[in-house]
Write a structure and sequence with these properties.
The protein is of the alpha/beta class and 261 residues long. The chain folds into two domains: 114 residues, Response regulator (Rossmann fold, 3-Layer(aba) Sandwich), CATH 3.40.50; 116 residues, Rossmann fold (3-Layer(aba) Sandwich), CATH 3.40.50. It is 38% helix and 18% strand. It has nine helices and ten strands. Helix 6 links the parallel strand 6 and strand 7. Helix 7 packs parallel to helix 8.
Length: 261
């Protein structure tokens, strides 16, 4: 964290061990922290203290994390709220995303991932760039094992994800609820990833699409749907490359030239 940019985080969890763990870890990397044991106590804190971000568990007695999230977004819409979840809480994650959650921390915690999520949700908005928050990521991949792996990786970065096996299913999903980003393999059964890009961009020109390819495109990416892809993941790719690309797409609405892993 940059010098002079000390932020105050409110950690909300009914488990005192989790609160202590997060307080100690985040304090060590330069954040100031406040604690609350439940949703009502958290609301009292944000109404009386300066808080830059809330980290709240979803599962809490009485006022749970989802109820807290809804109330916070009603009172202070711009205050980032990061929800603590587990891999099995798919329905709760979807509810939290719909209610305006800005990010997710997956159990068990890794400090590097916590820092990545916080850096994203606390990123200053005064750098002259146009920012587009990313919460929902749709992954299109016909290889089941790779799709599950990619979904878990993106979830661990703090995003809400859904995976489908083909382009036709992706188009149905987009028509029902448009995601913030699509990550699609180039080779798909039936309609290809390139055809998917054309279909999506014809209807939603501003919807970013990251194309997974097996070879490096040119700098302008003209090989793929007349350069309509916004970024590329080149096989084999490093896990951290996914986070880099998603963060870059949040920072600008112009196509990016992501050509090397």
């Amino acid at each position: 964290m940059e010098s002079g940019a000390r932020k105050t985080l409110l950690i909300v969890d009914d488990d005192s061990r989790i609160r202590s763990l997060l307080t100690e870890a985040l304090g060590a990397v330069g954040y100031a922290t406040l604690e609350a044991a439940d949703g009502q106590e958290a609301l009292d804190v944000i109404r009386s203290e300066t808080v830059d971000c809330i980290i709240a568990d979803i599962k809490m007695p009485e006022i749970d994390g989802l109820a807290l999230l809804s109330q916070v977004k009603s009172e202070r819409p711009a205050l980032p709220v990061v929800m603590i979840t587990g891999f099995g809480y798919r329905q709760q994650r979807e509810q939290a995303t719909s209610a305006g959650a800005d990010g997710f921390l997956m159990k068990p915690f890794r400090l590097s991932k916590i820092e990545e999520v916080l850096a994203r949700v606390l990123k200053p908005r005064s750098d002259g760039k146009r920012h587009r928050p990313i919460r929902d990521v749709l992954i299109v991949e016909d290889d089941n094992e790779f799709r599950v792996l990619l979904t878990e990786i993106v979830e661990a970065l703090g995003y809400n994800t859904e995976g489908v096996a083909d382009a036709e299913s992706a188009l149905e999903r987009v028509a029902k609820k448009k995601p913030d980003v699509i990550i699609s393999d180039f080779k798909l059964p039936g309609m290809s990833g390139e055809e998917l890009i054309r279909e999506v961009k014809a209807e939603y020109a501003d919807l970013p699409i990251v194309l997974i390819t097996g070879y490096a495109p040119s700098l302008d990416g003209k090989e793929f749907a007349d350069g309509a892809a916004d970024a590329f993941l080149l096989k084999p790719f490093r896990i951290d490359r996914i986070g880099d690309i998603l963060r870059s797409l949040e920072e600008t609405t112009t196509p990016t030239d992501q050509t090397s892993a």
